[in-house]
Design brief:
single chain; 2 domains; 10-stranded mixed sheet; alpha/beta
C-alpha cells in the first residue's frame, strides 16, 4: 500500500518546545493530520496550535511521559495506516514527503522508512551489514534515529506480541530498541536518500532550561545505555560495555569537584546516578526540575 497524505499521521512529542514546534508544523503539508503529544501539559500551547492549524490535534499528557511512552500515546490516537514520528526541532524540506510517497509505491516490505538528515557528518542511520549507502535508491539499514521515522502501522500491528516503544526508556535508545526488535522479526528498515530533512539537534527544549536539560540528558543516556544492553545481551555483558563509562564518570566527577566546576561536576554526578540506578534495577525516574 502506498503512503499518501490521507493515510498518514504525523506524531510530534513536545516538551517546552514552543520556540520550535510551529516551524516543524509549518513544514508539514496542511492536508496531513498532525498529533502533538505535549509532555509539558501546556494548555495555552494546545489552544494556540489547535486554533491556528486545522490539521493539528494537541493531546496533553498530564505528566512528562518521555519519548517512548509519548510516541505510544500518539500511536494509540492514530487511525491511519502510517505514522511519521518527528521531533519538534525537525523541519521537513520540500522534497521530504514527495520522495517517500514515491518510494512507497515501489517498496511495501518495510516496517520503518525514513528520510535522511541533510547533515552528512551526522548520519541518522546505522548501515546493515552487507549493505551500502546509495545516493539515489532506498537502502536497508540496521537502525534509524528516532527524530524522524515513518512506521508502517498496518504491517507492524500484525506482528505477534509486538509492542512499539518500550516505555521503560524515558529518553534515548528507545528507537534503537525498536529497530533491533524489528530486525529480529525480519522487518526491513529503509532510508530514502532523496528525502531530506533538517534536524537542529538538541534544540527541542527552550534554551532557558539548558542546564537542567543537560543534567537530564546525561542521567538518562547512562540509564538507557545500561538498560538496553542488559535487556538484549544480559547483565554481565551490559556491565562490561558500561565499565569504561563508569570509570570515566567517576574520575571526571572528582576532577570537577576539586576544581570547583559546579556545572561539570553536576553533569558527571548525573551520569553516575543514572548508571547506578539502572544497574540496581531502578526505573528511569529522574525528571527535570522546571
Amino acid at each position: 500500500m502506498s503512503i499518501t497524505r490521507q493515510n498518514l499521521s504525523v506524531i510530534i512529542v513536545s516538551f517546552k518546545s514552543e520556540h520550535v514546534i510551529e516551524n516543524c508544523i509549518n513544514s508539514v503539508d496542511s492536508e496531513i493530520e498532525i498529533i502533538v503529544i505535549d509532555n509539558s501539559n501546556n494548555v495555552e500551547l494546545k489552544k494556540k496550535i489547535e486554533s491556528k492549524y486545522q490539521n493539528v490535534k494537541c493531546i496533553l499528557s498530564k505528566e512528562n511521559l518521555g519519548m517512548g511512552a509519548g510516541n505510544n500515546l500518539g500511536i494509540k490516537n492514530v487511525k491511519k495506516d502510517f505514522a511519521l514520528i518527528l521531533n519538534p526541532d525537525v523541519t521537513l524540506e520540500s522534497n521530504s514527503m514527495r520522495e517517500i510517497f514515491a518510494v512507497s509505491s515501489e517498496i511495501d516490505d518495510f516496517g520503518i522508512i525514513a528520510p535522511i538528515s541533510n547533515k552528512q557528518k551526522y548520519p541518522n542511520y546505522i548501515l546493515k551489514k552487507g549493505h551500502n549507502y546509495d545516493p539515489i535508491k532506498p537502502f536497508k539499514v540496521k537502525s534509524v534515529d528516532g527524530y524522524a521515522m515513518l512506521l508502517n502501522l498496518k504491517r507492524l500491528k500484525k506482528l505477534i506480541n509486538f509492542n512499539f516503544f518500550d516505555e521503560n526508556f524515558f529518553l534515548y535508545l528507545e528507537n534503537e530498541d525498536l529497530c533491533k526488535r524489528l530486525n529480529e522479526n525480519d522487518e526491513n528498515i529503509y532510508i530514502v536518500p532523496k528525502s531530506t530533512i533538517n534536524h537542529l539537534g538538541g534544540k527541542a527544549v527552550d534554551p532557558m532550561y539548558e542546564n537542567e536539560i543537560e543534567y537530564l540528558r546525561n542521567w538518562h543516556w547512562m540509564w538507557s545505555k545500561f538498560y538496553f544492553n542488559k535487556k538484549h545481551y544480559g547483565y554481565l555483558i551490559a556491565l562490561l560495555k558500561i565499565l569504561k563509562n563508569l570509570i570515566s564518570a567517576k574520575i571526571k566527577f572528582f576532577y570537577y569537584l576539586i576544581t570547583f566546576n559546579t556545572f561539570k561536576r553536576k553533569v558527571y554526578q548525573m551520569r553516575l546516578q543514572g548508571l547506578i540506578s539502572s544497574m540496581i534495577g531502578k526505573k528511569s525516574d529522574y525528571r527535570p526540575k522546571l
